[in-house]
Amino acid sequence: MTTPHLKLGERFGFMNYGYLWYKPFDDRHVYCAIGDSGNIIYTDKDLGISVGMTGTFKPRIFDRVEFIEKKILPAVAAPSNN
After folding, report:
1. Which DSSP helix (H) or strand (E) runs through 74?
2. What SS3 state is found at 70?
3. Is residue 75 within 8 Å of residue 69, measured between CB atoms?
4. What whole-number distance in Å separates Cα of residue 69 and Cα of residue 80?
5. Is the model's pTM score more than 0.70?
Protein backbone atom coordinates (compact mmCIF):
# COMPACT_ATOMS: atom_id res chain seq x y z
CA MET A 1 0.00 0.00 0.00
CA THR A 2 2.95 2.35 0.45
CA THR A 3 4.47 1.53 -2.93
CA PRO A 4 4.00 4.63 -5.11
CA HIS A 5 1.73 4.11 -8.09
CA LEU A 6 1.15 7.72 -9.10
CA LYS A 7 3.19 10.95 -9.01
CA LEU A 8 0.83 13.79 -8.06
CA GLY A 9 1.04 17.35 -9.39
CA GLU A 10 1.77 20.71 -7.84
CA ARG A 11 -1.58 20.96 -6.03
CA PHE A 12 -0.52 17.91 -4.00
CA GLY A 13 3.10 18.94 -3.47
CA PHE A 14 4.37 16.48 -6.11
CA MET A 15 3.93 13.64 -3.61
CA ASN A 16 3.82 10.00 -4.65
CA TYR A 17 0.60 8.12 -4.00
CA GLY A 18 0.07 4.42 -3.24
CA TYR A 19 -3.15 2.85 -2.00
CA LEU A 20 -4.55 5.50 0.40
CA TRP A 21 -1.00 6.41 1.52
CA TYR A 22 1.14 9.28 0.31
CA LYS A 23 4.94 9.30 0.11
CA PRO A 24 5.98 12.95 0.34
CA PHE A 25 9.72 12.43 -0.25
CA ASP A 26 11.38 10.28 -2.89
CA ASP A 27 14.51 9.72 -0.80
CA ARG A 28 13.03 9.11 2.69
CA HIS A 29 10.85 6.42 4.28
CA VAL A 30 8.06 8.81 5.24
CA TYR A 31 4.45 7.78 4.62
CA CYS A 32 1.22 9.64 5.34
CA ALA A 33 -2.45 8.80 5.40
CA ILE A 34 -4.05 12.17 4.76
CA GLY A 35 -7.76 12.75 5.23
CA ASP A 36 -10.21 15.57 4.90
CA SER A 37 -9.89 18.84 6.85
CA GLY A 38 -6.44 18.24 8.28
CA ASN A 39 -6.52 14.65 9.53
CA ILE A 40 -3.15 12.95 9.09
CA ILE A 41 -1.20 9.91 10.17
CA TYR A 42 2.50 10.59 9.55
CA THR A 43 5.13 7.86 9.90
CA ASP A 44 8.89 8.13 9.51
CA LYS A 45 10.40 4.65 9.52
CA ASP A 46 13.98 5.93 9.79
CA LEU A 47 13.26 8.01 12.91
CA GLY A 48 10.86 5.42 14.33
CA ILE A 49 8.16 8.03 14.91
CA SER A 50 4.47 8.34 14.11
CA VAL A 51 2.31 11.44 14.48
CA GLY A 52 -1.48 11.43 14.41
CA MET A 53 -3.23 14.77 14.18
CA THR A 54 -6.63 16.25 13.43
CA GLY A 55 -7.41 19.85 12.62
CA THR A 56 -8.13 22.33 9.90
CA PHE A 57 -5.38 23.31 7.51
CA LYS A 58 -5.08 25.15 4.26
CA PRO A 59 -6.59 23.29 1.31
CA ARG A 60 -3.26 21.88 0.16
CA ILE A 61 -2.55 18.53 1.75
CA PHE A 62 1.22 18.89 1.80
CA ASP A 63 0.88 21.78 4.29
CA ARG A 64 0.18 19.20 7.00
CA VAL A 65 3.39 17.31 6.25
CA GLU A 66 5.31 20.58 6.25
CA PHE A 67 3.81 21.50 9.65
CA ILE A 68 4.90 18.19 11.16
CA GLU A 69 8.37 18.42 9.61
CA LYS A 70 8.99 22.00 10.78
CA LYS A 71 7.13 22.17 14.11
CA ILE A 72 6.51 18.72 15.59
CA LEU A 73 9.65 16.75 14.71
CA PRO A 74 12.10 19.40 16.00
CA ALA A 75 10.18 19.59 19.29
CA VAL A 76 10.28 15.81 19.70
CA ALA A 77 13.94 15.56 18.76
CA ALA A 78 15.04 18.44 21.02
CA PRO A 79 17.05 17.28 24.03
CA SER A 80 15.27 17.51 27.37
CA ASN A 81 16.58 19.99 29.94
CA ASN A 82 15.39 17.87 32.89
Report:
1. helix 73-77
2. helix
3. no
4. 19
5. yes
